[in-house]
Design a protein that fits this description.
Layout lengths: L1 H9 L1 H23 L1 H9 L15 H12 L6 H46 L3 H5 L3 H42 L1 H17 L1 H30 L1 H6 L3 H51 L4 H47 L15 E11 L2 E12 L3 E6 L5 H8 L7 E6 L2 E2 L5 H5 L2 E4 L10 H6 L7 H10 L3 H5 L18 H13 L5 E5 L7 H14 L4 E5 L3 H6 L2 E6 L2 E7 L12
Parallel strand pairs: 3-8, 3-9, 6-7, 7-8
Antiparallel strand pairs: 1-2, 1-4, 4-5, 9-10
Helix pairs in contact: 1-2, 2-5, 2-7, 3-5, 5-7, 5-12, 7-8, 7-9, 7-12, 8-11, 8-12, 9-11, 9-12, 11-12, 16-18, 18-19
């Protein structure tokens, strides 16, 4: 029930309105059903049905209805009672329609809110947190867990609704015969308690399902990202074996859920039916109650138990899905706790240089930079090289503010990066990764990323600067041609040029290339290096590379080794020399 309270607190106004509509729907139906007893009495011409018997032969419900109608000066005729009954049923239908409509909207809204909350929290996290997260785990949270959480909300609302309706029906039944009603309710509670083990079993299956889905989708995503080398080595069967094992485990969990759900429904019906058959026998044969009262009481008590049966069934569905909600909430809270701390507020002004002085940085216990210092003058083209894992990308991440040095300072002109508005500084950076990441969309969207302030002229300028304009204009629809899956097939060099255009379209002052040419053939690499050479002086370029072509294009080359930085080449006339370290 904690989850139901959580949902109501999350959307208090909408939930209360929905529950009130459902409550009034139950009251309307209960009021209409209460008309059945005098209606049956009149139709069967039983004594006391229309006031002919003494008041003592009437049930509390009959007395209340007779008193209510007499206070209004109305005689309980068949026509009137039928009209009230029909009107109550139609009112209930209208209220249920209103409530179901709101519930449907709230289910969609909850799904959207949870997805956006996770995405928003992830985009605001520290870089160290983000890179440790399995992509499949996050994709599962956005897709599967958000949908199952919304289902849990729907089922929670239904549980509360059915309980409220059962209370309304129970009040009507108590006014008919409180002894029989109490006996029935006690028996019903016993029946539901006996079947509670099936609910607990379903809950455990739901928790296992959530755990397996997280692992399975994480494993699948990681496998698909590396499927090419696996297929090249004929090792894809190994990955398939692991995925097959987890998928079959998930299938067994789903089978347990199905069994628990169907067993609950199958056992509820016969137990309630047997009890009612015995109850009707006792009421008619042992207690000698009037047939009209017994029929209505049996109907009302059946409504009570049926409604409680539905509540238990929906509660079972709720506990199956609730683990997905808690899992998603834990990811949101975890991401919020890892939120990137606010840096300074000073506006950046990149007019002279970017400097790193006395930088020390480590990943846990492994130091990658030790007292490293280097300097990138504005307008220069610098290259950084070194063995894998020595800290080349770490330097780039420090400059972009994705990482914070443990010691030392990153300077933008005369301001430390810690005092600068990070988002404003990052908007001055263009970043080109090793892998050219293109969406399955048009060239226009891939370059602008949907930014409305960028014009087609901006896109053309960026494509020309990236050396991509010529081949883009030869495509069937130019910048409106779709690239990627089911679209134009581009070479690696062409894809990388579009990625460079994306980095250039917002007029950055610093262009960072992280192994941007390492996956290209020599011809494509040489073409891109010529393009970068033409950009020299227009903006500051910093390239992480092992490629000789980029060394030749650069003004200066730094080598990283054992946490130290050494300037190995500085060409005359291309700015001041970098500070040597180590």
């Amino acid at each position: 029930m904690h989850l139901i309270v959580t949902f109501i607190r999350r959307y208090p106004i909408q939930s209360v309105i929905t529950l009130l509509a459902m409550l009034f729907a139950g009251i309307a139906e209960g009021f209409g059903l209460s008309m059945l007893l005098p209606l049956l009495g009149i139709a069967m011409d039983l004594p006391g049905a229309s006031g002919g018997a003494t008041p003592h032969s009437k049930s509390a419900l009959e007395q209340a209805l007779t008193g209510f109608l007499e206070s209004l000066g109305v005689t309980p005729t068949i026509n009137l009672l039928l009209f009230v009954f029909a009107f109550s049923v139609m009112l209930k239908a209208a209220l249920v329609l209103l409530a179901n409509k709101r519930v449907g909207y709230m289910v969609a809204r909850l799904t959207t809110d949870l997805r956006l909350a996770l995405i928003r929290a992830l985009f605001a996290t520290r870089w160290e947190y983000y890179v440790r997260q399995p992509i499949g785990r996050l994709a599962n949270a956005v897709a599967t867990e958000a949908s199952r959480s919304a289902e849990a909300y729907l089922q929670g609302i239904l549980v509360v609704t059915y309980v409220m309706h059962a209370i309304v029906y129970g009040v009507v039944a108590l006014m008919l015969d409180w002894k029989a009603t109490l006996i029935t309710l006690i028996a019903g509670i016993i029946i539901l308690s006996v079947l509670r083990r099936l609910v607990t079993k379903a809950k455990k299956a739901g928790e296992r399902q959530t755990s397996l889905l997280k692992y399975l989708l994480s494993l699948l995503t990681d496998t698909l990202q590396s499927i090419k080398p696996l297929k090249a080595m004929a090792r894809e069967n190994m990955a398939y074996g692991m995925l097959q094992t987890k998928t079959r485990s998930l299938n067994r969990v789903l089978q347990n859920q199905v069994f628990s759900r169907e067993a609950l429904q199958a056992l509820q019906e016969p137990l309630i039916t047997v009890f009612f058959a015995f109850g009707i026998y006792v009421a008619l044969v042992r207690w000698h109650l009037p047939l009209a009262r017994v029929l209505l009481m049996a109907y009302m008590l059946a409504k009570v138990l049926k409604t409680l049966q539905k509540a238990q069934k929906e509660y079972q569905n709720l506990v199956i899905a609730e683990s997905a909600y808690w899992s998603l909430c834990s990811k949101i809270e975890e991401a919020q706790e890892a939120q990137e701390s606010a840096a300074g507020s000073m506006p950046p002004s990149f007019s002279r240089s970017v400097r790193l002085e006395g930088i020390r940085f480590s990943y846990e216990e492994r130091f990658v930079l030790k007292d490293a210092s280097l300097w990138f003058p504005k307008g220069s083209f610098s290259a950084i090289t070194g063995a894998s894992g020595v800290g080349k990308t770490t330097i780039v991440d420090l400059i972009a503010g994705l990482l914070t040095p443990h010691e030392g300072t990153v300077w933008i002109d005369d301001l430390p990066l810690s005092q600068i508005d990070l988002r404003a500084w990052r908007r001055m950076i263009g970043y080109v990764p090793q892998e050219p990441l293109l969406m399955h969309d048009t060239v226009l969207v891939n370059v602008t990323l949907g930014a409305p302030e960028l014009t087609k002229q901006d896109v053309e300028r960026a494509l020309r600067d990236a050396g991509a304009w010529e081949f883009v204009t030869e495509m069937p629809e130019g910048i409106h041609s779709v690239v990627g899956e089911r679209g134009m097939r581009l070479s690696g060099g062409q894809r990388q040029r579009i990625t460079i255009a994306r980095a250039l379209v917002h007029n950055p002052q610093l262009l960072i290339l992280d192994e941007a040419t390492s996956a290209l053939d020599p011809v494509s690499e040489a073409d891109i290096c010529r393009t970068l050479g033409e950009l020299k002086g227009k903006l500051t370029i910093l390239a992480i590379t092992h490629q000789q072509a980029l060394f030749d294009a650069a003004d200066r080359v730094f080598r990283l080794s054992n946490g130290k930085v050494q300037l190995v080449e500085n060409r005359p006339g291309q700015g001041q020399p970098a500070v040597k370290s180590g």
